[in-house]
Give the backbone structure.
Amino acid sequence: MTKSGKKKILKHPPHWKDDFSVDWDATDYVSRREFTRFLGLSSVGMAVGTTLIAGVGSAVKPVREAEPLRLGRVEDFPPGTSKAFEFPEKGQYSLLVRHEDGSFSAYGQKCPHLGCAVYYEPHDRVLECPCHEGFFDAKTGDVISGPPQRGLNVVELEVRDGELWAVGGGGH
């Protein structure tokens, strides 16, 4: 625009139009409304896709029953001690804890945060993940503090004729 408020008409098109030779009159412009609609529909499509993928991924997997594993005689485990053992499969470790009151608990030893091995801290009576200072209740396996968002996998135990057996659970 000129100082008088009239539009200045160029006799020659600007030089940049030679480099970007687009026929602007023949080009369809995308309006803000069309662009917003595209973004909205794309977002909805991605949300639906992500939900479907999450649903399929978290579908109940068939549970393969583990063979019961004899852990030892009850009196072999003094109160306040722990023992690692392979369960439910070879190479998958679980941790047995005998509490001061004489009861037992066992959990999959893999921390649900990043998979580090947890260990029993008898002085504090907690299970600790040393990688990022995650702490779990030794009686329940629930998260006490730290980055883990869920508790440890529980291993089901049975006492049979004075012997302690791991009979299920503990899957990683």
Q: What stands out?
A: The mean pLDDT is 86. The first strand starts at residue 69 and ends at 73.
